[in-house]
Write a structure and sequence with these properties.
This protein has 255 residues and is α+β, with helices and mostly antiparallel strands. The chain is built from three helices and ten strands.
Length: 255
């Protein structure tokens, strides 16, 4: 009887030890997971620095080559004193002049920096392409090797000028689909808004292949934003929380 009781006690003690070991392992795994996630977020935040500096340098080089920031001077719409006709904008910019204007002025729209065709193509303007004899003209693309694509956003951060409205909200206002942008390294699912989704990306625009988009990205970064192109340019990243105009937004002035 005593031996049986002793054996039972030994068995119970072994089981208790096993439970303690499992609990410790679970706690360590949880700590490691949290630490890994935190480290990943920190590394992504550090990655924004060279990316934002590259965007800033692209904007500076654009001005050095042409004398203007993107969407300024002749690189603005001809309805605002520039050389670019609404009809010359890509098909994905929209069907109406209002849609095209919103698309053009979106702070997430980097097409004048990322595309290999001059924004002034076909205008005959002296800055349409690089002229070595004058050391002046467009010679893009100015941004290469970035994760870029087409993002759906709204015009709450537009005000109809290249300056934009930095105090606005990219989830309010009129829809602007298929904005050619550059994604930051923080990955989030699209935002459900008004029965649809915003901040979702695709590698190709919806047009000219309606009705569906090709190569949709379920998770991808938020778009970098450019404000103040008519005064003091500013690059903005929405930061680790993926929300605009919150405390963790990251800013870089372009001098």
């Amino acid at each position: 009887m005593n031996r049986m009781q002793e054996k039972a006690n030994q068995s119970g003690l072994t089981l208790l030890e096993l439970m303690v070991v499992i609990a410790v392992l679970v706690a360590v795994a949880a700590l490691a997971s949290g630490s890994l996630f935190g480290t990943l977020e920190v590394s992504r935040e550090k990655l924004t620095e060279p990316e934002m500096m590259a965007i800033a340098e692209a904007v500076r080089q654009f001005k050095k080559d042409t004398g203007y920031y993107p969407k300024q001077g002749p690189f603005n719409l001809n309805t605002a004193g520039g050389e670019i006709a609404l009809a010359s904008l890509p098909e994905e910019s929209g069907g109406t002049n209002a849609e095209k204007t919103r698309w053009f002025y979106s702070p997430a729209n980097f097409y004048q920096l990322t595309r290999a065709v001059s924004p002034l193509a076909g205008t005959g303007h002296m800055l349409e392409n690089w002229r070595s004899e004058a050391a002046r003209g467009w010679r893009g693309p100015y941004l290469k090797g970035f994760t870029d694509g087409y993002v759906d956003i709204r015009d709450g951060i537009n005000d109809g000028t290249p300056d934009g409205n930095a105090a606005g909200n990219p989830l309010t206002g009129n829809n602007i689909p298929d904005v050619p942008g550059v994604a930051d390294p923080f990955q989030f699912r699209p935002e459900p808004v008004g029965g649809g989704t915003l901040m979702d990306w695709a590698e190709t625009p919806r047009l000219p292949s309606p009705p569906g988009r090709l190569y949709e990205k379920v998770t991808w970064g938020r778009p970098y934003l450019l404000f103040g192109l008519d005064a003091q340019p500013l690059v903005v990243c929405m930061g680790p929380d993926g929300e605009y105009n919150t405390a963790d937004d990251i800013f870089l002035d372009i001098h």
